[in-house]
Amino acid sequence: MAEVKFIFVTGGVTSSLGKGIISASLAKLLQARGYSVTIQKLDPYINVDPGTLNPYEHGECYVTLDGAETDLDLGHYERFLNVPTSQANNITTGRIYQTVINKERRGDYLGKTVQVIPHITDEIKRRIKLVSAGNKFDIVITEIGGTVGDIESLPYIESVRQLKWEMGSHNCLVIHLTLVPYLSASGELKTKPTQHSVKALLEAGIQPDILVLRTVKNLTPDVRRKVALFCNVEENAVIESVDVSTIYEVPLKMLDEKLDQTVLRKLELSLKSEPQLSEWRDFLHKLRNPKTSTRIGIVGKYVELADAYKSIHESLIHSGAMNECHVNIQYIHSEDITETNAPVILGDLDGILVAPGFGSRGIEGKIHAAKFARENNIPFLGICLGMQCAVIEFARNILNFEGAHSTEMDHKTKYPVIDLMEEQKRVTDKGGTMRLGGYRCKISGGTKAFEAYGKTEVIERHRHRYEFNNLYLEDFSKNGMIPAGINPESNLVEIVEIPDHKWFVGVQFHPEYSSTVLNPHPLFVSFIRASIIGKTG
Ligand code: GLN
Predict the structure, then answer these.
(1) What is the pTM of this model?
(2) What is the model's pLDDT at position 431?
């Protein structure tokens, strides 16, 4: 088997330029030409994983099938490539140091001074290569978080320099993404920040092979030539990445710019077939030409930051396109919702989605939202904490369990309808200790969930500590909220439904993590469909 080829994507000038989308788009194009590709993200912070980070700090925490809590860019990778990522696809500085320090304590380096170079850089290189262990992939794309020149990303940049030296240019490429600002006063695109940023890379010993320039205006041939000359890259290795209306257009933009061809030529790989992108184009066509529209409210407490509910947002986009429906997504702050104003805030929605979350803030607003959806026959999807809120609401208002709650919010409640499992009660560490990753779920026939999935068993991803309390299962079932999905090993309730309602589904797992462009998640597809039907009668 041929050697694995490595592509590194670095960023310069500012953060938030979209390295994740560029990496995912390039991967998509290479995959569409017949290569097997994976993407990995290296994050320069000290947290061992982003699971302990507040979404306000870092956006959503994305969970892989094998239970890793990871950066949200992995969500883009999966949504674009339609192949699962794993624990090995996201590495943080914290994890690198943790491994090296554990080895030091075990005596693996006995007698030696343990240093950033070579010990930390060697561990970074080992992890980079690990993702392709067993030659599973032809090409590995590694995105380096942060901006070149940051103190904290230096060991990563040094590791890339070493790998490039060890493997040679035809096995290892560096793509540098920068910003070319447009100054409206002078009507000019400015290349100086890019030149400086490439200089910073050169100081670290890396000559980038390809530059991707993020811009609001198309680059003129002059600008391209200038950047090529002053940054020492070929003219056709200067790639324009102009702002587009949807991230799903970026692969086609990169195709126009021949990014895939330049990459393959430099890696001495054949172009294989023309990229097979018909399904992708089909999706984009539906996205741009909706036949109908629907208004979906996402009720959450991190709504100020769009990235906090990234996967949910994208799942609604995928399933909207599948239904040829424009989804008008309204973010609603759960702290704003009260019993009395619920009709005003939620009244003109066609569907209500109550989002996942942790802790008490905004919890009552989420419970009111579930009540409003139930009482007014509005399609409802509750995800994780959203499902738990629907259960609490039902207990309080239908079962008349006064003060029913989750023990997460009220550990003295008389009716702990949502409670910790025995094994969670002994857990004190916060990092990586929740019920995480893929678990089986058996689905009962004749339910909305069965209608959506069309099968009786699925695997879905989890990220929570608290569970439906089976002590109350009969009370719920007898009174109209049924368990539509159960984990066959533990008997835990994974899906609840109200059969008498138009479409009321709560899931303890996170369907949003496994919705992709080519495979929109069935529950989202059904939810959107129900919300459209709801509109027309
Ligand atoms: N806080 C809840 C729990 O830990 C729900 C978690 C979530 O919504 N991801 O069970």
Answers:
(1) 0.94
(2) 79
